[in-house]
Design brief:
Structural class: alpha/beta
Shape: globular
Largest sheet: 7 strands, parallel
Order of helices and strands: EHEHEHEHEHEHHE
Number of helices: 7
């Protein structure tokens, strides 16, 4: 049983679909994108849907309580839900900062906490946190986002120690995964990517599957799926 947060669209959807191909039972979390979530759930063979606002720690608690009641156990957790905004750092407000960090970092921790509590009841499990190239490389107009995703990487490393040996915690850091709304900056990043192309949700999903299947000798790691861009 694997819960994927933010699984209605984009990378989360790709991860959910791939996990079903691997034979996993998948739970789809969403907040606003109900129509997309239902479509993804249908594509996943009738996956269970769970709605929650991850800005709210009490709602996160209710999400995992509901999951335990309905599904009985949790074997894997993929923390994919995230936000992305662009601001001159001199213009970032407290509201802008909290908008990003409440979901990108704070929610990841409390989902890990609640997920690990469930996993411990059945002997352990696997957690995969989706970070970003932005957690590895600095971007001048995304420093608040950079901080949140770098935080996910360090959170992953710390929780890998805290939850060992029964629960592994790893991270996947995607590079440019283009969708229909990619901007000129994203296109320039693709041009600078050694692989000479953008990535796909399926390629991110490959890395997630690896960590979900790996032994507990693989934990606390971050795998960049970025066509080599983090090395430039």
């Amino acid at each position: 049983m694997v819960l994927v947060t933010g699984a209605a669209r984009r990378i989360g959807r790709g991860i959910a679909l791939r996990l079903v191909e691997e034979g996993a039972r998948v739970c789809i979390h969403y907040h606003h994108s109900e129509q997309d979530a239902r479509r993804t759930a249908e594509e996943c063979g009738g996956a269970e849907l769970f709605r929650a606002n991850l800005e709210s720690v009490p709602e996160i608690g209710r999400l995992f309580a509901d999951l335990e009641q309905r599904m009985g156990r949790l074997d894997g957790l993929v923390n994919n839900a995230a936000r992305f905004t662009r601001f001159d750092p001199l213009e970032i407000t407290e509201k802008d900062w909290d908008f990003i960090h409440s979901v990108n970092l704070k929610a990841v921790f409390f989902c890990c906490q609640n997920g690990a509590r469930l996993m411990q009841k059945t002997g352990g499990g696997r957690i995969v946190n989706i970070s970003s190239l932005g957690g590895i490389r600095p971007w001048a107009e995304h420093v608040h986002y950079n901080a949140s995703k770098a935080g996910v990487i360090m959170l992953t490393r710390g929780l890998a120690k805290a939850f060992a040996p029964s629960i592994t915690v790893n991270s996947v850091a995607p590079g440019v995964i283009p969708f229909e709304d990619i901007d000129e900056r994203g296109k320039r990043m693709i041009e600078a990517t050694p692989a000479r192309r953008g990535g796909t949700p399926a390629e991110v999903a490959d890395a997630v599957v690896y960590f979900l299947k790996a032994t507990n000798f693989v934990t606390g790691q971050t795998l960049a799926v970025d066509g080599g861009l983090s090395q430039r």
